[in-house]
């Protein structure tokens, strides 16, 4: 059994960042990174499909808002290898499209529709001073009014999260763009959006590659410290050891895990409540399906609340990936329409679900594991819906804490 100081589970953005910081800043420290796939990148992996890259777990882009993160990532893939875009994302309402976020772009609707939505928003609970609900479905109506809720937010999120809306809490909704009624009214009068803009308002995407190229380079930079084809099946909490499906075993002074807790078959020598808490963690998966025809749109991606369409959004590849064509559909695994032709990739783990009890579950689990020298990190280690730039930032923060 090989013994190292740091054992890093998972070769996505979080694990790759932590491992590369160790290599650069602590060159004498022994460590290994274990990745179950044949290449690194996790949810940010890309494949060549129809002569151009396709991001196999949906659209991933590098936000411009975290300069320290980008400065670090550009050491692996220099800035001159990226194109920079201003986000163009839209919502398909059937007979017309409007920009995203919805409430900031109601002004793009026909005037009669604007009046209906403005009236509904004015009567929303948050504008009438009623108490804030604790569950997602009630909160959406309270915050945005019954029309935005019923026509867009609830059907879209039901498609994306596979009908799990009744289990979701509201503690995570502060990350959504916040547009007040006054700002919505101003946008309709002045015909321009007001309020905070969503993430990726400006973003980078590689000029010649898919997004996965960055993370493959980070994996290669680790050399023999990165072991692919290592699927972790058992974690011994007291011994700080792991077993892999190929029979290999590893021990460490400190384990940093970025893989889903529910994907570890056996968590050994832990308190009895740990298995129960892990079982409470919920997630959804997606299918990404490539369609080869170009669309007559300048949008980078489009959201679809229509329940009659199986997919919840499309990524218009030819508008952000140079020398490419076509687009890809993103569909919750529970809604996949197998009759639709095309190259597809299925991902069991795509989105952690922010269930009502998740904050308490994760605080208890992460606190207990930390006391044992085991740290959860990133989208799956922390069970948080982090974008890749935030995941890298979290890895940088943990590295500074531990070193």
What does this structure look like?
The chain is α/β, with parallel strands linked by helices and 403 residues long. The chain has 2 domains: 286 residues, 3-Layer(bba) Sandwich (FAD/NAD(P)-binding domain); 90 residues, no CATH class. It contains 12 helices and 20 strands. The strands form 4 sheets. Strands 1, 2, 10, 11, 12, 13, 14 and 20 form an 8-stranded mixed sheet that branches. Strand 1, helix 1 and strand 2 form a beta-alpha-beta unit. The two termini are 25 Å apart.
Q: What is the average per-residue confidence, as pLDDT, rounded to a whole number?
A: 94
CATH topology of the largest domain: FAD/NAD(P)-binding domain
Kindly, what is the distance between the CA atoms of the first and last residues, rounded to a whole number of angstroms? 25 Å
The computed structural class is alpha/beta
User: Which architecture name of the largest domain does CATH use?
Assistant: 3-Layer(bba) Sandwich
The largest pleated sheet is described as: 8 strands, mixed
Q: In terms of per-residue confidence, which ranges show pLDDT below 50 for 5 or more consecutive residues?
A: none
CATH superfamily of the largest domain: FAD/NAD(P)-binding domain
* Integer-rounded radius of gyration: 22 Å
Shape: globular
What is the overall number of helices? Answer: 12
Overall number of strands: 20
Which CATH class of the largest domain applies here? Alpha Beta
């Amino acid at each position: 059994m090989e013994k190292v100081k740091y054992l890093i589970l998972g070769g996505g953005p979080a694990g790759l960042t932590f491992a590369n910081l160790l290599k650069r800043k602590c060159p004498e420290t022994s460590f290994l990174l274990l990745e179950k796939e044949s290449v690194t990148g996790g949810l940010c992996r890309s494949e060549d499909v129809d002569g151009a890259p396709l991001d196999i777990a949906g659209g991933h882009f590098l936000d411009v808002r975290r300069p320290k993160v980008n400065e670090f990532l550009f050491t692996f893939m220099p800035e001159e290898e990226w194109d920079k875009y201003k986000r163009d994302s839209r919502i398909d309402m059937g007979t017309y499209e409007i920009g995203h976020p919805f409430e900031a772009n109601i002004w793009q609707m026909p005037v009669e529709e604007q009046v209906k939505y403005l009236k509904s928003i004015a009567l929303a609970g948050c504008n009438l001073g009623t108490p804030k609900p604790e569950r997602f479905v009630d909160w959406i109506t309270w915050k945005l009014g019954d029309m935005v809720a019923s026509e867009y937010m609830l059907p879209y999120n039901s498609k994306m999260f596979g009908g799990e809306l009744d289990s979701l809490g509201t503690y995570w909704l502060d990350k959504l763009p916040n547009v007040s009624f006054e700002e919505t009214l101003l946008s309709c009068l002045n015909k321009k959006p007001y309020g905070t803009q969503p993430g990726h308002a400006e973003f980078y995407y590689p000029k010649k590659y898919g997004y996965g190229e960055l993370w493959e380079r980070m994996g290669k930079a680790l050399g023999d410290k990165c072991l692919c084809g290592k699927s972790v099946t058992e974690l011994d909490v007291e011994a700080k050891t792991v077993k892999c499906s190929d029979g290999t075993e590893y021990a460490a002074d400190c384990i940093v895990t970025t893989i889903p807790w529910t994907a570890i078959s056996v968590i050994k020598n832990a308190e009895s409540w740990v298995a129960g808490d892990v079982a409470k963690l919920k997630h959804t998966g997606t299918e990404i399906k490539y369609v080869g025809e170009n669309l007559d749109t300048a949008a980078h991606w489009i959201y679809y609340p229509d329940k009659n369409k199986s997919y919840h959004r499309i990524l218009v590849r030819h508008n952000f990936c140079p020398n490419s064509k076509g687009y890809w559909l993103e569909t919750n695994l529970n809604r996949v329409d197998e009759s639709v032709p095309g190259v597809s990739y299925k991902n069991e783990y795509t989105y952690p679900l922010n269930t009502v009890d998740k904050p308490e579950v994760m605080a208890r689990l992460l606190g207990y594991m930390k006391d044992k020298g085991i740290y959860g990190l990133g989208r799956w280690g922390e069970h948080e819906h982090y974008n890749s730039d935030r995941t890298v930032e979290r890895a940088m923060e943990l590295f500074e804490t531990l070193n």
